């Protein structure tokens, strides 16, 4: 199960059935759970913990030191859950002591070739990052978001659950859950709800209808953000999806770009 040319530090902890390909390198503080496969020439280093049944393809770099000039070799972590697919040349970095101290990845995510997860990022579950999609430091990507190829997400930005980012889009502000965003950094715009994604995840028609109404209140009215949110709370039936939509936007009040542009960036329909 372990190729004779692989270099594995004696301090690494590997489950009995882990597969390690030719010329792969496994560092001293690495822990890998059962059923995980590591391809040829992949490098897994740092204080990295990997769960079960992950597939790490050849030439991937997992657990390298962060690309942060403030990092001085402190013990920081990368924690990866189960059933993730990390394709060739993808890079996932450790956290920093000036951030959360760890980068985290949940379960069932797909990181396509050349995608990048920087220090202190938190990628939840079921996320797809297409080829060369890039997260700067301290980014949070919520469940089932899809990031198109060559898109770039600015540091400290949040991508909401079930959101879809178009290929080549430069994102410099929070993207609310269930929405679609495309465009360049100066002209990135929300283009409506990710209706296809919601349908694929069996969100009911009633909830989708409610989300449409909430979206229109934010997009079409000239109300202040606080008043628009209050209108949504009083006029639209509650659901877990609606609660998350509201909470996400309310918690963005400290993010000036979203406050200043939330009306102008919603396409008026």
Output the keywords:
single chain; alpha/beta; ten-stranded mixed sheet; 5 helices; 27 strands; disordered C terminus
Task: Describe how the helices and strands are arranged.
Elements lengths: L6 E2 L4 E2 L4 E2 L4 E2 L4 E2 L4 E2 L4 E2 L2 E4 L4 E2 L4 E4 L12 E4 L4 E2 L4 E3 L8 E4 L4 E2 L4 E2 L4 E2 L4 E2 L4 E2 L4 E2 L4 E2 L4 E2 L4 E2 L4 E2 L4 E2 L7 E4 L6 E5 L1 H6 L4 H16 L4 H11 L4 H11 L5 H10 L4
Parallel strand pairs: 1-4, 2-5, 3-6, 4-7, 5-8, 6-9, 7-10, 8-11, 9-12, 10-13, 11-14, 12-15, 13-16, 14-17, 15-18, 16-19, 17-20, 18-21, 19-22, 20-23, 21-24, 22-25, 24-26
Antiparallel strand pairs: 26-27
Helix pairs in contact: 2-3
> What's the tally of helices?
5
Uncertain segments of ≥5 residues (pLDDT<50)?
254-269
Q: Which class of secondary structure composition applies to the elements?
A: alpha/beta
Largest sheet: 10 strands, mixed
Strand content: 25-35%
Number of strand elements: 27
Overall pLDDT metric: 92
What is the multimeric organization of the chains shown? Answer: single chain
Strand order of the largest sheet: 3-6-9-12-15-18-21-24-26-27
How far is the first residue's CA from the last residue's CA?
57 Å
Walkthrough of the structure:
With 269 residues, the chain is an alpha/beta fold. 20% of the residues lie in helices and 25% in strands. The protein has five helices and 27 strands. The strands form three sheets. A ten-stranded mixed sheet has the order 3-6-9-12-15-18-21-24-26-27. Strands 1-4-7-10-13-16-19-22-25 form a nine-stranded parallel sheet, with no helix packed on it. α2 packs antiparallel against α3 (225-235). The longest helix has 16 residues, at 205-220. The protein is elongated.
């Amino acid at each position: 199960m372990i190729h004779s040319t692989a270099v594995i530090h004696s301090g690494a902890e590997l489950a009995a059935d882990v597969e390690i390909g030719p010329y792969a390198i496994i560092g001293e503080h690495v822990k890998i759970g059962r059923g995980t496969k590591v391809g040829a020439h992949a490098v897994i280093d740092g204080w990295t913990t990997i769960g079960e049944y992950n597939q790490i393809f050849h030439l991937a770099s997992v657990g390298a030191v962060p690309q942060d000039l403030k990092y001085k070799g402190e013990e920081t972590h990368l924690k990866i859950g189960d059933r993730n697919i990390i394709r060739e040349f993808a890079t996932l970095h450790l956290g920093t002591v000036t951030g959360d101290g760890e980068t985290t990845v949940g379960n069932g995510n797909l990181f396509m070739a050349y995608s990048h997860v920087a220090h202190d990022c938190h990628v939840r579950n079921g996320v797809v990052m297409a080829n060369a999609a890039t997260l700067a430091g301290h980014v949070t990507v919520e469940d089932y978001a899809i990031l198109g190829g060559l898109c770039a997400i600015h540091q400290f930005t949040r991508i909401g659950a079930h959101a879809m980012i178009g290929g080549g889009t430069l994102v410099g502000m929070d993207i609310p859950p269930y929405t679609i965003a495309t465009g360049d950094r100066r002209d990135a715009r929300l283009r409506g709800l990710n209706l296809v994604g919601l349908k694929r995840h069996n969100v009911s028609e009633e909830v989708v209808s409610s989300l449409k109404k909430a979206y229109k209140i934010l997009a079409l009215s000239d109300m202040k953000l606080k008043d628009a949110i209050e209108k949504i709370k009083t006029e639209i039936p509650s659901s877990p999806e609606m609660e998350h939509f509201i909470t996400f936007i309310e918690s963005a009040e400290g993010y000036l770009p979203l406050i200043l542009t939330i009306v102008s960036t919603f396409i008026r329909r």
